[in-house]
Design brief:
Elements: H1 3-17, E1 20-21, H2 22-29, H3 33-45, E2 49-52, E3 55-58, E4 89-92, H4 97-109, E5 114-117, E6 124-129, H5 132-149, E7 156-161, H6 165-181, E8 186-192, H7 197-210, E9 216-219, H8 222-234, E10 243-248, H9 252-259, E11 264-269, H10 272-288, E12 295-297, E13 301-303, H11 308-311, E14 312-315, E15 318-321, H12 323-329, E16 350-354, H13 361-376, E17 380-384, H14 386-406, E18 414-417, H15 423-430, E19 436-440, H16 443-449, E20 455-459, E21 463-465, E22 470-472, H17 474-481, E23 485-490, E24 494-496, E25 500-503, H18 506-518, E26 519-525, E27 537-540, E28 547-550, H19 556-564, E29 568-571
Helix pairs in contact: 2-3, 4-14, 5-6, 7-8, 10-13, 14-15, 15-16, 17-18
Length: 572
Amino acid sequence: MAKENRLEKIVNTINEYGYITVTDLSRLLNVSEMTIRRDLALLDEEKRIHRTYGGAAPRQDNGVEREGELSDRQFHPKNDSIQVDMVDVLIATSVNPYFDKLLLDRVGKKNIPVIAESLPMPNQRTLVSVDNYQAGLDLGRATGNIMLKQNFNNVQVLDLSFQLPNTQIRSQGFINGLNEIYPSNELVLSINAQSRSATAYQITFDALSVHRNINLIFAINDATASGAIRACQDLQIDSANMVVVTFGLEGDTMKNALYEKSYCKVGLAMFPEIVAQACIDAAIGAFMGNQLPEQYITPHVVLTPETLPDYYTRIDNGWQLNWESVHKNLSLPPRLESGPCFKEVNVPIKIGLIIPFSEHEWYQELTHNLVEYANQCDANLHIIDAEQNVQDEVEMRRMAIARKAASLVEPGNVILIDGGPMAVYLAEELRGKRDITVITNSMDVINTLNPSPGIILISTGGAIRYSSQMLVGPTAESALKELRADLLFLMVGGISLDFGLSHTNISDVTIKQAMIRSAREVILLADHTVFSTESIIQVAPLSIVDVLVTDDALPSSTRLNLTKMGIRIVLV
């Protein structure tokens, strides 16, 4: 598919579905995720779509809205691809351990202070968070009292949880608080709703269809609560017989639900306005080198339809926090009583923000308020797409692997280059070499090295696979029988100790096997993401590998096992 046609297809697909991930677009259009990310960056720059965390959504001015979204008020960063090493301080939420490892490894090398939001992170300067257990406990007690006043004889609970420690603690606190009022309550189901409204809807719909005695749904955030309410509505459950409890009251959606006195009869407010203020305060303090508390504990309040107006005022376009009530009734973190930031700081500074769920109202509201408070302090806030930056980090590691691999090539060498993610990077590094011969089945490598005066370039011939731009089939394999190479630079889709080297496509596998037979020494190029995965078809056992060039994110235990097998490991 031509690039222009692909771009048009991407725009149409996004407008049709409202939101779609990079992975789904890659599968739909049969191109790499790297290509999709580049396409999305271009389309976002042209203002045809909006890039989001892990995917893309329609622009609001396209007139396309996504059904079931929590809010039509979205924050869209001007630049979501700024590198983490370009910021002075990083505010981040820990959700994906893999993302954390790569990004924090990078910020650690750059000595960039980290302010953790919601969840602890390695090497953080401080954590900004509510006391999740106490908040859950308070909410459980309040819920029990409300159900007692409304004459619920027994309580049957559906817990829409999530796998993270803070959300698990919320659920535990809530159940313990509820037990104080209803000791005989029954936890019917506790299910990970993946912090997604659509998932919560389906789980709730199925759970209520099977367990008709459930009369209390605890949701660990507004996204899951809104999904649960939609399921109750679709099942036409009488709101007098059901209580949906939300932990957050993050934006307008669940405040409206609480105000309407229907399914949502109580909720816990976490105040993104205050959390944002604490995050900026902590970020500036970290930049200045000030001693920070171990944790900025932000306040929480249990609210009902009757008490909601005590803290929030309804305005034309939503709800506005009543700061007078906040200062009168709540205990704020250090320094926030006197102002939103350190006035004596030498600004501007660049504060990076990594958000894991850009569609959640919590992060929409948090981001909106972070921008506001950062502006008050003359600081610059930059939104960082975690998935994009991790991909950038992986690509940089692949470039480094290719650079190291190229250094192993000496004048007079005949080398085989397999097709794969690092093949082009390797070819680019080889362009300055002299007196070498390159045999390859990769059209990308051929295009990169042609012309290179010091290199004899030999194509294997064969049928071209469009998706991988590789030459495969009997013609290519037959040509390799007549050739011998000093070195083979091999790339595969999966590596494991048990299954060895593996790949996804049979025609790619047979050409790789032919290359292995034609080479005196096999050098495997593989970043850490390829390990501990097994593709469909085995290429060869690990014993055929002489040298592995990889990055330092590969666990030391894996490296040790490979060394025991006689493989020489070269780290970058």
